[in-house]
Design a protein that fits this description.
With about 500 residues, the protein is α+β, with helices and mostly antiparallel strands. It contains 18 helices and 13 strands.
């Protein structure tokens, strides 16, 4: 138990350099520990309640999220380096595995910046077709202990409806769409690690702009000494996707290449990828492969084709189908045409770990439970289109209003970033100290995990041991910081009031 809290203390204090003042870092410690341990998820006030912080300091905690003394993007870069230094990052061919995806969070607020009307693409019948809320782009990294793998969140940033704010800040992402920005953030994460990485994404991210971003960031990486591309994108194609064969040269009777007028052809014949399942079904290779924890018999076909209207970049396509479920057919894609097809299938199967991360982040950590708003944000009216909402935000012209909106925007992203760190700490603790936590059995479970405890079990273990650290580790940095803000236990209860009652 002592080693666990010392590990948490080491990770948190390694982020100290991201804060301009010590007091700002102190509030960061309280926010992270509070989100990890809180028993309710009712906004920032739950942190005050869980850690018994003096109530008059509630406004100080709110001011921390709006403070310019720290930047969520700088914190995310440092957090990535710290996570990589723990030795828990899963590598494949000496490459870390990054996972990216978008996630939407409903927010019924008319005064939150970047809130807009959005369509839900999910096939879950419990979700409405349209919601009002924020669109986040999430980037995670795969960690594991050999028995269990988890997607640890590195950052989650608002990536839709925020272009006016990014233009006010002159951000490097101001011209990027959601797809472009998330791919660019992944490339920059790889450059921060100074390693080429695999990037796993779903089919929404297969686009010409995404591939152009990778090419642009590859050129920038070469200037910084990273010769290989920052990321190898592994994704999935839509069922109606088309590609093109490599153009074949024409030969004369002597066997020499004919050179006619005009420029050489840049693409060959058009190929409808889904038709290959039937046209070339006799060329599929059958093998056994572990997919999503189960041994499956898989048929696959690997073809290299050109893709992208106007781009025509060589990509590796792997057409797969699971024997016994021929209805389910997938077309996987890799930007590295030398990558083995079986490895592409194995890597893409790991993409689903980010969906589990979203579930824990939303339902247990409640990382989207922020309530920051500003009266200077143009009000969002019901049934207002997304385009109109963005235009109304762009029409804000006064410096006072823009500054207030930017502070609110930073507070939202700051709260979500701290929630990412809180969840990441629980995941690292569960993987590194799985034996200690499982042996303590802090909660009854019908089926006990032999690999690693869940984030919920780990959090309950920390909650039960939290009061213990004040006696055993009183000089630990996080202990001293929290004690500075805590209610004096001798005056917490009014004994005279209890006697009269």
């Amino acid at each position: 138990m002592k080693k666990i809290w010392q590990f948490i203390n080491k990770i948190i204090t390694s982020l100290w350099e991201c804060f301009s003042t010590d007091n700002t870092f102190h509030w960061f410690v309280i926010a992270v520990i509070g989100i990890m341990l809180r028993s309710d998820t009712l906004g920032v006030s739950s942190i005050i309640r869980e850690l018994s912080i003096r109530p008059e300091l509630y406004q100080n905690l709110l001011n921390f999220f709006h403070s310019p003394a720290w930047d969520p993007s700088n914190l995310a870069q440092k957090w990535l380096s710290v996570v990589h230094g723990t030795g828990m990052v899963v590598h494949e061919d000496d490459k870390p595995i990054l996972i990216g995806d978008g996630v939407k969070q409903n927010k019924e607020s008319s005064r939150m910046p970047c809130v807009k009307r959005m369509r839900q693409e999910s096939e879950d019948t419990s979700k409405p077709e349209h919601i009002i809320g924020h669109m986040f782009g999430a980037l995670g990294i795969l960690i594991g202990n050999g028995m269990k793998n988890l997607c640890l969140p590195i950052s989650m940033t608002i990536q839709d409806g925020c272009r006016p704010i990014l233009e006010w800040l002159d951000s490097e992402f101001k011209e990027d769409s959601h797809v472009q920005r998330l791919v660019r953030e992944a490339c920059k994460a790889a450059i921060t690690l100074r390693k080429s990485c695999y990037l796993l994404m779903d089919r929404a991210f297969l686009s010409v702009p995404a591939l152009e971003v990778i090419a642009e960031e590859t050129r920038n990486a070469m200037k910084n000494g990273l010769i290989r591309p920052p990321v190898t994108l592994i994704t999935k194609a839509k069922s109606n996707a088309v590609a093109f064969e490599t153009p074949k040269p024409k030969y004369d009777d002597a066997g020499n290449i004919k050179r006619g007028r005009g420029r050489p052809r840049i693409k060959g014949d058009k190929v409808t990828l889904y038709d290959l399942f039937e046209r070339r079904k006799n060329e599929f290779i059958t093998t056994e492969l572990e997919m999503y924890g189960k041994l499956e018999t898989v048929k696959y076909l690997c073809v290299d084709l050109l893709w992208g209207d106007g781009l025509y970049q060589p990509l590796r396509f792997v057409l797969t189908t699971v024997v016994g479920t021929d209805i389910i057919k997938s077309i996987l894609i890799s930007t590295d045409i030398t990558l083995e097809p079986l490895k592409i299938i194995k890597l893409y199967c790991r993409r689903f770990s980010i969906e589990s991360c979203f579930r824990v982040f939303k339902q247990f950590i409640c990382g989207f439970g922020y309530h920051f708003w500003s009266r200077l944000v143009p009000p969002l009216k019901k049934n207002m289109s997304a385009q109109v909402a963005v235009e109304r935000l762009a029409n804000v012209s006064t410096d006072v209003a823009r500054s207030a909106i930017i502070r609110t925007y930073n507070a939202i992203e700051g709260f979500v970033m701290i929630s990412c760190i809180a969840l990441g700490l629980l995941q690292l603790t569960a993987l590194i100290f799985s034996e200690e936590i499982n042996n303590s059995r802090p909660r009854w479970l019908r089926t006990f995990s032999k690999a690693a405890p869940s984030e919920e079990t780990t959090a309950l273990f920390l909650v039960k041991s939290y009061s213990w650290i004040y006696r055993v580790l009183p000089n630990m940095a996080i202990t001293e910081i929290i004690k500075l803000k805590k209610i004096d236990p001798h005056v917490f209860f009014d004994e005279s009031h209890l006697q009269s009652a």
